[in-house]
User: Fold this.
Amino acid sequence: MREFLTLDEVDVAGRRVLIRSDLNVPIDHGAVADDFRIKASLPTIERLREAGATVVVASHLGRPKQREPEFRMDPVAEALSRLGGFPVKKLDTVVGPAVEAAVAASAPGDVLMLENTRFEPGETKNDPDLAENLSRLADLFVLDAFGTAHRAHASTVGVTEFAPSVAGPLLIAEVEALGKLMTDPPRPFTVILGGAKVSDKLGVIQNLLPKVDLMLIGGGMCFTLLAAEGYEIGSSLFEEHMVDQVTDVLGSGSGDRVRLPSDLVAADRFAEDAEHRIVARSGFPDDWMGLDIGPDTAAEFARVIAGSGSVFWNGPMGVFEWEAFRHGTETVARALAEHGGFSVVGGGDSVAALRMLGLESGVSHLSTGGGAGLEMLEGVALPGLQALKRWKDES
Assistant:
């Protein structure tokens, strides 16, 4: 049984619905540069419209220090309207009389978008006054932003204190996909971790390692682990302060499940046109840096993926934006797309790599929440989900 109330359990016809979506997308020269999160959020918004609700969309964008023009929601509203094929009325503020009047004047099926929630200083402080003002805009609150469910903010947690609250379909899909990996993953269960820093993923490693069959590690984070095992890593990315903790993990009872690269692509500098060559991990050149896993490692990772029942992938294997250092990430992505089993990919870079290669349709679930997904896999209780549980308990 689900731990949250859902849209299936409420009637939204003729009601004002405030939906917290995750529309935190990259903006380039005033336009949306990657619409993945908008497309992922769109079905819930369309469902509310078609059911006869007045839809008020809230989201943050970036990390503004104040009301900086480059963080306004206008390009997001334009992209949502274009992709959805319906008008979106963009409002200039988050709360206040003008917003309340605009919502009151709207009809069923209308969609309004609030300004960047982080333009309000009370947002990240979970200010109860801001949360109450947000609740005045709606008869019902829908949390559909898994990517911010790990933040106790006014628009994710605070508003649930003042308005009946349910989980949106996208949030439920995220929770169920990741929950399956944590409780009953088809075996063998393989986790692939990459990206820059092992410090960002140590909690995931510690929590999942006893539960997985194999953990494959590439990306910049692999060099701290290789250094902990005594390998020379040249000038590769290295978190010296993490060595003791990494050593403890590798030396634990589950440490033999970790697979590190046997070969790497080393470059003489961090540049797209850098001189580069394939090296064995035992022969890394001084003053060079690793920017991808090597072809032997990539092939081995692909073989493991092919033989797995379920796979979770977070973090690229190298600097995939540059063609010379893309092979490892592309090999993993293609192996996942051809896998046929249950697969979850989380983290913006991994999802971006799949989409760049046109392989996203081959994955069971693409997660919109990098940090939230990692925290959930660490076993951390997410504040947004905890807030929704209260409404289920009281129903």
